[in-house]
């Protein structure tokens, strides 16, 4: 997969809904009902972070949910990429970008939403052919004002800001012309997941799906 093909696919996925749920799932039993609730609420693109021992099994379960587009977050090494693809992930998300990670994603035909926090990082990825990036950590890197400033000289790059995005500030990001969607964890709070309140999560997803820039 070429960088241009990867970016085109990433753009399609990011365009599915204004919010991409960023999920940390500890129990595989929660995977399918959680994905079903989020998809039913209007958030089909799901990022399962590789931060728990269950993450790869969770991806495998969620990949079977109709209407869902499941990706793997927190990709750091080439082995992460291979494991994620084998589990059924259809896209990858990384907090940053290294040559080895990018090469692994291209070899595995896994579209990558690579992280960038500065203009230089974004320019290096653009130079390689990637024009859809993750802005991370969004709030810690200056928030919406910083992303707006980066967008002025680099209008050809679209971003998915993640890290500190909340219902209170989501529209600050989504209203920017260089923001295609945002990543957020608030749509699947751990207390609702543990208690199995799938209706509550679906309601949060519905509210998030209604956010538009």
Automatic annotation (TrEMBL):
Keywords of the record: Carbohydrate metabolism, Lyase, Schiff base
GO molecular function, one term: 2-dehydro-3-deoxy-phosphogluconate aldolase activity
The EC number(s) this enzyme carries: 4.1.2.14
Catalytic activity, as annotated: 2-dehydro-3-deoxy-6-phospho-D-gluconate = D-glyceraldehyde 3-phosphate + pyruvate
Coiled-coil features, chain-numbered ranges: none
Subunit composition and interactions: Homotrimer.
Official protein name in the record: 2-dehydro-3-deoxy-phosphogluconate aldolase
Organism whose genome encodes this protein: Roseobacter cerasinus
Gene name linked to the record: eda_1
């Amino acid at each position: 997969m070429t960088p241009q093909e990867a970016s085109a696919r990433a753009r399609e996925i990011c365009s599915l809904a204004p919010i991409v749920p960023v999920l940390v799932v500890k129990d595989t039993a929660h995977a399918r009902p959680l994905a079903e609730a989020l998809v039913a609420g209007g958030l089909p693109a799901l990022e399962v972070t590789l931060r728990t021992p269950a993450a790869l099994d969770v991806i495998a379960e969620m990949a079977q949910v109709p209407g869902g587009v499941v990706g793997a977050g927190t990709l750091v090494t080439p082995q992460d990429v291979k494991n994620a693809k084998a589990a059924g992930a259809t896209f990858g998300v990384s907090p940053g970008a290294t040559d080895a990670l990018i090469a692994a994603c291209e070899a595995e035909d896994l579209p990558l939403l690579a992280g960038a926090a500065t203009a230089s990082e974004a320019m290096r990825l653009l130079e390689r052919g990637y024009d859809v990036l993750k802005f991370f950590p969004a709030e810690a890197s200056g928030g919406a004002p910083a992303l707006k400033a980066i967008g002025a000289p680099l209008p050809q790059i679209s971003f998915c800001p993640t890290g500190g995005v909340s219902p209170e500030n989501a529209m600050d990001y989504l209203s920017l012309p260089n923001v295609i969607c945002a990543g957020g964890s608030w749509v699947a709070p751990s207390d609702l997941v543990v208690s199995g309140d799938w209706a509550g999560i679906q309601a949060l997803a519905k509210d998030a799906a209604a956010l538009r820039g």
